[in-house]
Amino acid sequence: MHKRLLLCSALALAGCNSSPSNGDLENFLEPKFAACQNIKVIDIAKTNGYEEDGYYRVDFTYGIALKDAGQLQEIKTLWQQEQERSAQAKTAYAEREQRVALLRQEIETLEQASAPRFEQFDDGQMHHSQGISATRVLTPREQYLAALDAWRNHPPEALRLKQEELKAYEQAFKDQWGNYSYQFLGQVGPAVSRFYRQGCPSTTYKFTQGMLEGHAQAAEQSNDPSHWFEARELHMKGSVTMRKTENGWRALSDG
């Protein structure tokens, strides 16, 4: 009996009864996330194992976490800056409406005071018609239209300056507020989801989806998108069938 125990101990030391280790599980799991730029596998731990049909079935736990939670906070900072700019733009657009309305009213007043009126012209006035060698009497309508064209092409100084003021104001406003696009405002969820999944193969989406469900639920329940920027870890259980090879334990399937 004593010799039998010694033999079993020797076989165990020789590795005859060896089983997959945490290192073997790391070799199985980590390549699945190797292409992911922002998430990684953590805390891989074997919890149970048993032989099954000539192979070895391993139960284990593991986690998925961000490589650098600070990057998520950088996105949050950009989102907050966009929020501030959006609020400023809302105020600026309200002020613009008032300013433009006032300038247009002033322009309209100057136009009414300076524009030629049809009743100013009559049949008795003689005018030279360009392109015609003889001088003839222009009709009141022709006189009015000619004067109107001249007024439009060369408005009074006060009117011209006010028109230029409106044009310059509109251009300055467009330069400051009109050509800005938001990356995150109104689309925080999709933006954070893309961050988690950046570089990852589609086979890992089920893991990132599990991580993001908590963000989505918290943001929806509180109506506060900032919950999307909370760094979270996903803790999972897994099981894999492995076989012993010359190069160590290799997975057959995972479930």
H/E series, N to C? HHEEHHHHHEE
- Strand neighbour order, sheet with most strands: 1-2-3-4
Shape: rod-shaped
- Multimeric status of the protein: single chain
Structural class: alpha+beta
Low-confidence stretches: 1-17
Average pLDDT score: 86
Distance between the termini: 41 Å
Number of strands: 4
| Number of contiguous helices | 7
Protein name: Lysozyme inhibitor LprI N-terminal domain-containing protein
Organism: Comamonas aquatica
Keywords: Signal
Signal peptide: 1-23
Question: Can you tell me about this structure?
Answer:
This protein has 255 residues and is an alpha+beta fold. The chain has a domain of 105 residues. 51% of the residues lie in helices and 18% in strands. The protein is built from seven helices and four strands, in the order H-H-E-E-H-H-H-H-H-E-E. It has a four-stranded antiparallel beta sheet. The protein is rod-shaped, with a radius of gyration of 39 Å. The N terminus is likely disordered.
Short description:
The protein is α+β, with helices and mostly antiparallel strands. 51% of the residues lie in helices and 18% in strands. It has a domain at 74-178.
Topology:
Elements: H1 2-14, H2 22-29, E1 39-52, E2 55-66, H3 69-114, H4 140-153, H5 157-178, H6 188-197, H7 205-222, E3 234-245, E4 248-254
Protein name: Lysozyme inhibitor LprI N-terminal domain-containing protein
Organism: Comamonas aquatica
Keywords: Signal
Q: Characteristics of this structure?
A:
four-stranded antiparallel beta sheet, 4 strands, 255 residues, signal, 7 helices, alpha+beta
